[in-house]
Every structure is written in C-alpha cells, then in structure tokens.
Amino acid sequence: MSNSRKPFVQIFHLVTQHWFLCGLMLVIPAGILLGTSETAREMADSLRKIPGTLLTAVILFLMSITLDSSRLVASVRSPKAVLLATLINQLIMPLMAMPILPLISSPDLRLGLLIASIVPCTMAAASVWTRMANGNDAVSLLVTLLTNSLCFLVIPIWLSFAVSGQQLNSVAETLAFTPMAARLVKGAVLPVFFGQLVRLIPHIRSEVDRRKKVYSNSAQIILLFIVYMSALTGGTQFSEDARPPDVSVFLTVLLACNALHICGMIVCSLACYFFSIRPEDKIAVIFAGSQKTLPVGVAVAQASGVPLAIVPMLMFHASQLFVDTWVAARIALPRTSDRTDAGETKNCSEQQS
C-alpha cells in the first residue's frame, strides 16, 4: 500500500471504529440548522410527526430480544445495583444541581437545568451504552422502568421548590399517572416483554444471538435519528425566541450540564466501589444513574410555560451522548466470550503445571 493512501485508510478505520460519535457530530448541527431554516421547516415538521414513543419501543425491543433472560431474572432477584442507580438518578443528581443553579443568570435556563436534573433515566440510551461497554444491560433496563414509573411522583415534588402553583398544576397534568403509565407500558414494558417472549423460540434465539451486533447497531442508528429530531426541536426553539440570552449564558449552561453529568458518573462509580457492585453491573449503574431522558424533560419544560426551559434539556441530552460514547470506549469490559476463553486458557495452564 502506498504511503499516500495510508492517511485515508487510517481515517476510514477511525470513522468505522467511532461511527456513532461521528454520527452525533453530523446530526446535531444538521438538525439545529434545519430547525432554524424557514425553507426546511415543513420537512422538519413532517419528521417530528413520527412518534418518539414508537422509535423508543423499537430500540427497546431490539435490546430485549438480544438480552439473556437469565440476566434479567438475576437483576430482579438481586436488585442492589438497580436500586443504587435509581437513588442516584432521582435523588443525588437533583441535589448536585442545586449549588450549580445560582451560577445561571437566566431564570428560564435555570429552571430548565433543574428540570434536566430531576427527570428519569433515558428510555433507551442507557441500555445501548451499557451494551457498548459490555455491561449488564438488564440492570439499566430495570432502572429505566423504575425511574420512569416514579416520575409522576418525583418530578412534582422537586419542582414544588422552584415553580409557582399554576406552573406546578400544569406540570402535574402533564405527568398525570394514567397517561404516563400508558406511555411507559407502550414505550417500554411491552417492547421488553415481547422481546423476551420471542426469545423463547429456540431457533430465533440462536439466530438473534449470532447477529447480536447487527441488532445493537440498528438500535444505535435509530437513536441517532431520535437525536436528530431533538436537534430539530432545539433549532426551532432558538429561531422562535425573540430575545435569547447572551452566548456566555448558553456556554455556562452547557458547562453546567457536562459538569452535572460527569459528577453523576463519578458518584455512581464511587458508590459501586463502596457497595461492592460487580463490574458488569457497575457499568450499567454509571450510565443509568447519570443519564436523563429527553421526552419527559421536553414535556415538563413545555408544561411549565417557560420559553427557554427546553434548551438545557437538549444540551444535557446531547452532551451526555458525546461524553458517554467516550466513556464507554474507556471502561468497556472484555466480551463474555473473550472472558470465557481467557478463563479456559488459564485453567488449562494450571492443569498442565
């Protein structure tokens, strides 16, 4: 191979190795620009008509159909990691946000950051990243179900310290138990149930396990599309706001979102060490304990009636995807098959000696 082609080959390998991160770098600015463009607004509106719940359901089905049922049962029987991630996500993360809020001069953005800190775990991303790092995605899946089940109760409690009575009533209506329960069942419970049900068929189970990477990559591609639609929403919000705050305020919010998320991951890691959580479960706790879901955050921000409250949620969501993609590559465990092969090699060596 000629030396002139080597840089292109290296770039190609780098892109294929980190294709999701490259995808984020493309779809987020493209979505924001498209959202602010008048000529492309109709196409953006058509894309936003695609139900986000449906896309999330497809992702969770793809994750569930490739999830070993025994791991899900084991996580239910021994829920220490699930409860720890839930506690950090719903209690510690909001508490960590409190000293950061006074640093933001815009009241709208301040409320938006509070909303970003109190919403539940992501519906799909936590399991996607946990699997990327070869962790126990059964734990992250259960954290998703538990935190989203509690959001109709947890979010109004936290917001009662920060918003007026009328705003709180509007948020409470948005988070009413019946519609939230229906959304959770359709978007998370049923896809997980049907995914596990399909795995009961031996032929399908073996075929799915053989092509597990294809299913996981498909889930990540759909997640990129969800991020793209979120960026469209953010671009539209920026274009419609008549008096946006200074750029420095937005940069402060972006730094605050990153700081809050990274601190959450550090707390999760330290808590796992303190409570002796298994390495596979630790990875799930790190992602599920620190990630925040976008759909619920957007719904709460819109219900509050504050124009720019949605922006910190979009920033938090985008930044957590970038950070977690990098973190997943750094903390990834060897694949189960690799660990099994290594264990067998070690046993053979001990027997020969």
Architecture overview:
Helices cover 80% and strands 0% of the residues. The chain has a domain at 79-176 and 223-330: Na+/H+ antiporter like fold, CATH 1.20.1530. α9 runs parallel beside α15 (279-290) and α14 (247-274) crosses α17. It has helices at 6-17, 19-36, 41-48, 52-65, 69-77, 80-97, 107-118, 125-132, 137-159, 165-174, 177-198, 202-210, 212-240, 247-274, 279-290, 294-304, 310-331, 336-352. It is globular. The protein is mainly alpha-helical and 353 residues long. The model is unreliable at 339-353 (pLDDT under 50).
How are the SSEs ordered, and which strands pair?
Elements: H1 6-17, H2 19-36, H3 41-48, H4 52-65, H5 69-77, H6 80-97, H7 107-118, H8 125-132, H9 137-159, H10 165-174, H11 177-198, H12 202-210, H13 212-240, H14 247-274, H15 279-290, H16 294-304, H17 310-331, H18 336-352
